[in-house]
Amino acid sequence: MLKKSFFNVGVLALGLTLGLGGISAAHAKPKVTETIKTYPVSATSLAGLAQEMDKKGPKSYWAYTTWYVKWTGDCKLSVTVDIILPKHKNPSKMPADVRKKFDSMLAALTEHERQHGRHGIAAAEEIERAGCAGGDAIIKKYNAVDIKFDKTTDHGRKKGVTLN
Question: How much is the pTM?
């Protein structure tokens, strides 16, 4: 997995090619499966939340996304997107201003992670349009898109992934 930021993403894409005989021009859309898992946080201050997410987050990140693209010899594609996010155990324990900032950060973080997942879906769609030819290169292209996305958004900070 490529670990890409303090806040978020590791992206790994795998293509399984099993021969390309019998590919037709018309394909169904790739099957997409998205799962969101959470890890608990319970701090009630911004500094405490940041510290707890640093410690408890997946691979020391606040959130983590992986996407996997698979295809068969007859060019049937599937995409699995797995997102791990923080979830407060008892949000009513947070002071109102802290909760508002946490909720805002979490919404931005969720959107940021979902965008990474959309990159995986776009990779699968492009592989499908190519008749499953050149899939590994397409996956590398979308891994680069993820890296550029993190760079241009400062890993989501420019889009609200912050507790400041």
Answer: 0.82
